[in-house]
Amino acid sequence: MLSRHVADKLQNYETPFYLYDIDLLRRTLESVVYESAKHNYKVHYAIKANYDDHILGIIREYGLGIDCASGNEVRKALEMGFDPKGIVYAGVGKRDKELRYAIAQKILAINCESLEELFLVDELSKEAGCKTDVALRINPDIDPKTNHCIDTGQADSKFGISYEEVLERVSDIQALENINIIGLHLHIGSQIRELHVFENMCEKVNVIVANLDSLGFNLRFVDVGGGLGINYDVPENEPIPNFASLFSIVNQYLSVGDREVHFEFGRSIVGECGELITKVLFNKTTATGRRLVIVDASMTELVRPAMYGSYHNIENITSQEELRSKYTVVGTACESTDVFDENVSLRKTKRGDLLTIKSAGAYGMSMASRYNLHDLPSAVYSDEI
Length: 385
Ligand SMILES: *Cc1c(COP(=O)(O)O)cnc(C)c1O
What we know:
By secondary structure, this protein is an alpha/beta fold. Helix content is 31%, strand content 23%. Strand 14 (324-330) and strand 15 (339-347) form a beta hairpin. Helix 6 packs across helix 7. Residues 46, 48-49, 67, 69, 90, 187, 190, 225-228, 264-268, 362 line the site of pyridoxal-5'-phosphate.
């Protein structure tokens, strides 16, 4: 963890803040670029994981495309200089103005998640006097064996069009004159650590693609989404996710001819390069004997523990004490769920110590809020300290 090595320097910054290890980000990007090139796979970065300018600038250097979940994300990607033809836009609920904007930008594909959306994109494209490239986001009905808060591909989930519905309406879909259906898209969930789940996914995709082929669709690419998990438990053991093993599974199991294969990684690209650095405000013991450490961050900087019950490894980076104790680390917000973790073994901790909450580069800053009128956290980058 970077913070341990630069703890002295970190004392100079106002807490809480995100600390980004830019060297690790670069090594992660080198790995994903190198491993994907072996199979000619195309990688998009899911910008919702972290849309920090400095980070996006670095990601752009490595030639990744962008996966967006809103019109403003499309705008951000374009403003940051990403090629429109490397941008895809998914989302169950796109507003008319977001669709009009995306249509005008001529991005790689709008990934439609309902038949109504497909018909609307056709209508809005006609109004705009153009033909729009779209992909069908199909719900593959797969259990990704992850936290149920972040699975997206099971049959009753809100994401994607049901495959049955597509089959029932083939002729209506093919009659649309102002769209080109150029891709198939799916995304089964996030933080997937059991890679065999991707084998099932590939087998489903093979069947779907073969059927759509025989029905006369002309798909140029298959986008299998993101979801590769990271090691929240012991991030030091696996700072760079194992892209190679995911790619080799897909290479082995996916059989879609010579179509392009796309991935959309968020967490696996930026998750491990970010830490939330926070200062201990107070120690106290509850009437029941629970020892609390109250830190100056809260769910407003990092909502994942409060929202999903997710685990982040925490360490005291400034204490010199040999003795360790068990603490409950809580934040400042007026919410009982604002707890970062219970029973955390930390070096004996006192007011003023700095703690790191690790693996916070993805869905950390991008989910920050101003609840309680907290200021948004700032960012410190390793290449600038
Ligand atoms: C969120 C999302 C991703 C990225 O997911 P990660 O688990 O962060 O890799 C990719 N594709 C779509 C459609 C998404 O919604």
